[in-house]
Every structure is written in C-alpha cells, then in structure tokens.
Amino acid sequence: MVMRFEHSYITGLPGTFLRHDPDVAPAPALIALNEPLALSLGLDVAELGAEGAAWFSGALRPEGADPVALAYAGHQFGGFSPSLGDGRAHLLGEFRGADGRLWDLQLKGSGRTPFSRGADGKAALGPMLREYLISEAMAALGVPTTRALAVVTTGERIPRDGALLPGAVLARVAASHIRVGTFQFFAARGDGGKVKALADYAIARHYPEIPDTPERYLAFFDHVATRQAALIAEWMGLGFIHGVMNTDNMAISGETIDYGPCAFMEAYSPGTVFSSIDRQGRYAYANQPLILAWNLARLAETLLPLIASDEESGVQILNERLEGIAGLYRREWLRVMRRKLALSGEEAGDGALIDDLLTAMTGADWTLTFRRLADWAGGNPVPLKALFEDFTKMEAWLPRWQARLAAEAPARIRAANPAVIPRNHRVEEALSAATEGDLAPFRALLAAVQNPFAGAEYYALPAPQSFGRYVTFCGT
Ligand code: AMP
Ligand code: MG
Questions:
Q1: Does residue 241 fall inside a structural domain?
Q2: Residue 392 belongs to some domain of the structure
Q3: Confidence of residue 1 (pLDDT cuts 50, 70, 90)
C-alpha cells in the first residue's frame, strides 16, 4: 500500500465536484518519476515505479482513489466565466505525507470531464514536462508550489496547432486545489452556504491557526492575502512571469499553480510578457503585484456576506483591507529584495535604493546581475560589468549599496540568488527533444534546475541573440 487515500474535500463539501473516471490510455509508459519528492512525502518509490504507469494513465485505479473533477469559476483576462472546473484533470484523492500534512494527488491531461466544454481533456507531453521542470525549479528556489510526482505518456497522439503530439498525463501533488475561482463558482450562484463551508474547510486545512471566532473569515482573507503577497514577491525576485494569473489559477494555499505559458525573464524589462494570448500585457512582469490585488478583490467579494451582517459595513471593512494590499505587497517585496541584496538590517531608504538598482539594471540579465553582485562584493567587478553595455548608472549605484552590505555578503548573495533558472532556450531544447523521444536533455536540465545555487555554465547563460523573442503558449 503506497498511499492511503483520504477524501476530506469530497466528503466535507458535497456538491462542489463531479465524480468522473480518467480516460484509459492505450499504451502508458512512466517516463518521469520524482523520487526525491516521493521520498520526502513518505511514498514507496519502488511501488510508484512499478504501478505508476497504470495508476496515472487510468488503466488501474489505485486502491482507495475516488476520481472527481472539481468545480470552479474564474476571471480570465478580466472577464468572468461562471463555469470552468477541471476540464482535463481528475483529483484521485488526498493522502498524508510523512510530515502528517494532507496533500492532493491530481492527474492533469487525463481526459474529458463534465467541465471540458468543447475541449479534448488531453495534454501534450511538452507542456506537462514543462510544468514538471518549472515547478521543480520553483521548489528548489524555495517558492511555494504544487509539485510534479510523475509524467506518464499515454501512447496517443493528440492534435495541437496542426501537429500530432505525444499525449501525456502529469500526476501532481498540491496542498489543495482550492482556487479563488472555487469561491467565485458558488458566490456567483448565490450559494452562500457553500461559500461558508468552503471557507471553513480552507481555514481548517490551510490556516488552522485562525481562532474560531466570528471574525475568522476576515482573518482568513488576511491570511490568504499575506501568503499570496509573499508568493508574488518571490516571483518578482526571481523574474518569474506566471502568464495567466486568472482567478482560477490563484491557489488559496498560496502555492504557485497551473504552469502554462509561464517563463523566467532574461533581460530586465518591466513590461516583459511571454504568453501569446496576453496581447494587452495584463499579466506582464511588473503588473503581477497589481493583479494580485485585483484577484484578492474578487476573493473579498465572495466573502462579503461572511464578514458582516449588513453589506455596507462589510464593504467598508473589506475596502480597507484591499487598500492595504499594496502596502502588504511592498513589505513582502522589500523582504525578498533585502535578502537578494544582502542588506544589513532595514533602513527607510531601502525601497529607493532597490528601485534605483532596477532602473540602473534595465536591459541586463535579471538572474545574472544579482548573482554577479556577489563577485562585485567580493572584489571582482569584471563578471558584473560584462553584463552591461553601459555601466554608468551601476557605477553610481554600487557605492550606495556597498554602504548597506551585511557581513559575508558574497556568500549571502550566492545563497539567495540562483545561478540557474530554467532558461527559455534550454526549456525549449529539452521539450523539443522529449517530443521527439529523447529525454536526456530534459533529465539534464531537470537536474540543473533542481540544484540552482551551484550551476553549470551551460544552463546559467542567457539565450543567444539568435533565439529571438520568446513566445509561450497555453498548454492546452
Ligand atoms: P488553464 O488555462 O490551463 O488554467 O485552463 C483554464 C480552463 O480550461 C480550466 O477549466 C481547464 O480545465 C480548461 N482546459 C484547459 N485545457 C483543456 C483541455 N485540453 N481540455 C479540457 N479542458 C481544458
Ligand atoms: Mg488553470
């Protein structure tokens, strides 16, 4: 028995999901198994290796699993879709990790569900390996995230953009799959009872420290806001661009979820957008903190009836909270940036110091600039200078920074700033090879991003000019 399934969500929240079986794949093969994750969760790696292909491909239902598709709604690029839900995912159940915590195990790309609308319920291998790679990178970088447990190829070919691509299923582990959009689904239907039940469930699962008082729903909002603000601050520190910060892709747990057209920024430019469908730049790098606040406002709307008995005072209370999000985010961002820059203590001028660095480093590689500040602090300015065509603004900024440096700055900087991120050209190289049947580049890149603070040069350097402007596509 590798995992004993529990079902707190479906037993505790009837009417929030639909039972549905995954498709049975014609020729399943387990091509990636996350052994370190499995071990850390207390799962039986040998059994997963032996049974994973069958369990994650619909061929065999693991004992105790009860597959369901979860209901949710969502604001997508600002427009409300009252009925989304898991259109190509099946929650098999929950299990307790070695740490005693409860985890969801979900299949993605596992076939149509009653929420599929016109789509095929499938996933191509490339996007599932991409989620695997990038979520593993995020985990290694210390960012809260869902994790990939395994990828199984199905033996099917699925049509995407005029090509037939190998189909795959990703098995992923998450603190839960409750999204801002889950609350919206029931609020939009006027089902206040379910919104309350969902909030109570989310508090018990993710925020058990909240005391059981009438103010607990406001405290719940505050806790979610703090975790999501901390999360977006970590993204910003890494130059990570999620690409589809729709409310259905914002997890109540504060984990990064749903890796679609996400990518890491190379040359720093606040307006950077990678996603082909984000034509207005709604989810551009520098907009992410604004969207954080926008999405939290959507969550607040659903909680309104739980916050106060009359709407007017509820609105007033929540509006005050929402006005505080920018300040909350700024504090989290300062925490992240002070860590990256090894600043000693906290000073009032730190915000301006960091803002001025961003201005000075515009156009230079985000990741390498921070990394090579360690060389500069250690007395070697050459690697940093090599990143800049015009170093004059940096020349002016560096002495100001030096005056604020903590002891052991080079070591601290190297511990806080990765050498390796999943560079777009390397990700593409790995995924194209995998799609052609060669998994070696994927495995090598995976190993590199799982150890991001060491870093082989092959993976650390930016894309060559010839790679051109990077465009990502939703993994549908
Ligand atoms: P995403 O953009 O991946 O977060 O997905 C948004 C919504 O579209 C979710 O409800 C998904 O379940 C659904 N969806 C995405 N791709 C597919 C697909 N190939 N088949 C069915 N539903 C899908
Ligand atoms: Mg999604």
A1: no
A2: yes
A3: very low
Atom 11 of ligand 1: nearest residue by CA position: 87
Q: Which amino acid is it at 447?
A: A
Q: Cα separation of 438 and 127, whole Å?
A: 15
Token pair of 339 as six digits: 């860590």
For 302-329, what is the mean pLDDT? 96
Residue 85 CA, closest ligand 1 atom number = 10
Domain of 395, in residue numbers: 343-405
Cβ-based burial of 92 (10 A; exposed 0-12, middle 13-18, buried ≥19) = buried
352 or 99, greater pLDDT: 352
- Which of 174, 201, 231 delimits the end of a domain? 174
Domain count, the chain: 2
Question: Is 235 among the domain residues?
Answer: no
CA of 258 to the centre of ligand 2 (A): 5
Boundary-marking domain end, from 364, 388, 405: 405
pLDDT at residue 3, as a whole number: 80
Ligand whose nearest atom lies closest to the CA of 85 = 1
Residues with CB under 6 A from ligand 1: 84-88, 115-116, 119-122, 244, 249, 258, 260, 474, 476
**C-beta pairs of 206-214 under 8 Å, 24+ apart in sequence:** 206/175, 206/176, 206/178, 206/252, 206/253, 206/254
